[in-house]
Every structure is written in structure tokens, then in C-alpha cells.
Design goal:
By secondary structure, the protein is α/β, with parallel strands linked by helices. About 50% of the residues lie in helices and about 15% in strands. The chain has a 5-stranded parallel beta sheet with strand order 3-2-1-4-5, sandwiched between helices. A 5-stranded parallel beta sheet has the order 7-8-6-9-10, sandwiched between helices. The termini are far apart. Helix 5 packs across helix 6, helix 8 crosses helix 11 and helix 11 runs antiparallel to helix 12. Strand 4, helix 6 and strand 5 form a beta-alpha-beta unit. It folds into 2 domains: about 160 residues, HUPs (Rossmann fold, 3-Layer(aba) Sandwich); about 180 residues, P-loop containing nucleotide triphosphate hydrolases (Rossmann fold, 3-Layer(aba) Sandwich), CATH 3.40.50.300. The relative contact order is 0.10.
Length: about 350
């Protein structure tokens, strides 16, 4: 039996435009419906001046994660200027969010002609304004553009972008796992070998009544009896992030991460003298708070570690990398009880700062 999408008209090229602040399941339903009806789909996102914490890079990452098969164009003034320069096109500005609808319609139509490969035959929206959007593009292109309205009354995906933006963690059911996980505050634990990261991660998660993410690199090392290849480094970084996404669905308030891809990136340098570009990109992943476990506890050789002097070298490198990347960190030291108390205080203070910033 055919569904509505099977009977709908097909188009050589279609368009979806949105702020995606944040990308929610209503947006995803719209994009997937457009994919079903188009041989090629152009996705454009821009907002000016935008919303705090929802910058171009973050929105682009969501779209890459959910629609890796699409080339999505997420614009900000700097990115648009670079595109114009590369293509020898006169500079242009992104219209402000509160400018008239026709300004935005003409901006997008000209963007398609000059920078994004030419006209489209359909524009997909979930709004009444889609008819006017299609009319302007038809005029600019000199050829018909059809408006396809998808779930106008939010029956298939009941969602309000404003409500989701106001409190993403309260709307878990309206966000994909990748997007929801990106809003879950992540607490990163770093430190050289035998600095108590795993013990602290477990204890901190228990103290905060939340979930924690074990270190996948150690799991793989044990599984492969201590033999890791260069290719394993990228696998470790990618899997660590995937596990964060999975465990974020079980977290309450924040997620405790026993290591980050930055650790794997540094191990790749130490072990192989090079880093896979994908791993280097994952090492740029930001965390809500970084805790650096001190070396003031005895070094324990469990058969998987280097020597104590390697631990000191690691610790110095962590400090160097965090400082160079502009990542503030809190050093926790002393007994386990003291470290947990310091970490809990630091986490609660950081989460309160985030809440205050959103008010």
C-alpha cells in the first residue's frame, strides 16, 4: 500500500531553510520528507544575530550527525564572506532576523543563484509563509517554484522551537539523541596515568546521582591484549563520543566523562608520532567543565601503564594543551573524599553559572 510520500510529486531540486536553533525532530521530519521528494536537496541555515550558545559550528555539527549524506550550508557573516570571496561574488550581508520576509526571500533566492548551484523547483516548509517564499523565488528564477507544506499544524511532530530552545533538557523526546546529548552538560576528567580518574568518575557520578562514561581506549587495549594500531586511535576517539551520546540519555543534570578524545589524540602523538585528522577534529570537542586529576597520589603500576616519569610528562602536556586551547580547568587533589568534594563544588558552581547565563 502506497503512503502519501510515494504519491507526492518529485522535484529535481528542493530547498529547506531554517534557523535550527536547535535542530529538533520537527525539523528532521521536514528534511526527510523533502529528501523523499527531491533528487537533490539544498539545506540552508542562518540566523542573525542568532542565539547565545547556538553558533554556526554547533548547528552544522548537528546537521552533519543527522544528515551525513546531505551538504548543508550553515551560514554566519564570516562564512558567507569566505564563500563570496572563493567564488568571486560581490560581498553580501545576512539579513537580520527581524527584517521583512521579502528581504529574506530575495536573499535566499540570490544565494541559490550565485553560490549554491542555481534554482530549485520546490521549497519545503511547515509554515504559512512558504507560499510567499515560493512566489518570490519563481519571480527571481523566471520559472515556477512550488511550495510543499509539511505538517503545518504540528500533528505528526508536536513541537515548539521556542519551548525547546528555552529548556532543551526538559524536551528530551523532541530531540534526536545526538542533539540532546550536546545539551547535556558534560564533565571531563583528565590526568596522567594513575591519577585516579576512573575511581573519581565513578564516585562523582554516584555523588551527583548521574551516569558516567568509561574510557573506551582502555577497554579496547584489554580486548586486544595491549596491541593498538594507528587506525585504532580514530576508532577510540569516535567510539568515546558515541558512548557519550548513548550515556547522555541516562544522565541526570550532567554526564561524567572518564577521559575525552583529547587524551586519545595525545596518545596517538606519543605512540605513532601522528594523528588522524578525524581524531584531531574530535579532540576539539568542548566540555562544560574540565577536571584535572592531580599527581599527588602514589603511582600504581597495574601492567598497563608506563612509568612514573611518563605520568609527570603527561600531566605537564595536559596543562599545556588546555591552556593553549583556552580551556579553563580545575585541579582536584587529595584523598578520594577530598577530590569528590572539590569536584562536586566545581560542577555545581559551573552548572549554576550556565543557568544564570540563560536567564
Amino acid at each position: 500500500m502506497s503512503n502519501a510520500a510515494d504519491l507526492a510529486p518529485r522535484f529535481p531540486r528542493g530547498l529547506v531553510v531554517g534557523k535550527f536553533c536547535p535542530l529538533h525532530l520537527g525539523h528532521e521530519h521536514l528534511i526527510r520528507r523533502a529528501q523523499q521528494q527531491c533528487d537533490e536537496l539544498v539545506v540552508v541555515s542562518y540566523t542573525e544575530p542568532g542565539f547565545p550558545g547556538l553558533d554556526r559550528e554547533r548547528r552544522a555539527a548537528w546537521l552533519r550527525a543527522r544528515f551525513p549524506e546531505l551538504r548543508c550550508h550553515v551560514l554566519d557573516p564570516g562564512h558567507l564572506a569566505q564563500m563570496c570571496q572563493e567564488r568571486g561574488v560581490a560581498p553580501r550581508r545576512i539579513p537580520a532576523d527581524d527584517e521583512p520576509e521579502d528581504v529574506h526571500r530575495h536573499f535566499v533566492a540570490q544565494l541559490l543563484l550565485d553560490l549554491l548551484g542555481g534554482p530549485v523547483q520546490a521549497v519545503f516548509t511547515s509554515e504559512h509563509y512558504g507560499d510567499g517564499f515560493a512566489a518570490v523565488m519563481s519571480q527571481v528564477f523566471g520559472a515556477p517554484v512550488q511550495h510543499v507544506c509539511v505538517d503545518l499544524h504540528r500533528v505528526q511532530v508536536p513541537v515548539s522551537g521556542t519551548q525547546v530552545r528555552r529548556d532543551p533538557l526538559a524536551h528530551r523526546s523532541l530531540l534526536s539523541p545526538e542533539v540532546f546529548a550536546d545539551f547535556m552538560p558534560r564533565i571531563a576528567l583528565l590526568g596522567g596515568e594513575s591519577t585516579g580518574k576512573t575511581t573519581l568518575a565513578q564516585a562523582l557520578a554516584k555523588a551527583l546521582n548521574t551516569a558516567w562514561v568509561p574510557e573506551f581506549g582502555r577497554t579496547l587495549w584489554e580486548r586486544q591484549e595491549g596491541r593498538l594500531s594507528f587506525e585504532d586511535m580514530a576508532l577510540i576517539g569516535r567510539t568515546q563520543v558515541e558512548h557519550e551520546v548513548q550515556m547522555a540519555q541516562r544522565a541526570q543534570g550532567c554526564l561524567i566523562c572518564d577521559t575525552t578524545p583529547l587524551t586519545t589524540c595525545l596518545y596517538s602523538e606519543w605512540m605513532f608520532g601522528r594523528v588522524d585528522p578525524a581524531l584531531r577534529a574530535w579532540a576539539e570537542r568542548r566540555y562544560t567543565l574540565t577536571l584535572l586529576c592531580d599527581t599527588d597520589i602514589p603511582f600504581e603500576q597495574d601492567g598497563t601503564r608506563q612509568q612514573a616519569d611518563f605520568r609527570l610528562m603527561q600531566q605537564a602536556r595536559y596543562r599545556q594543551e588546555l591552556t593553549a586551547r583556552g580551556i579553563p580547568f580545575v585541579v582536584v587533589s587529595g584523598s578520594l573524599e577530598q577530590r569528590v568534594a572539590q569536584a562536586v563544588d566545581a560542577v555545581r558552581a559551573r552548572l549554576q553559572d550556565k543557568r544564570d547565563a540563560q536567564l
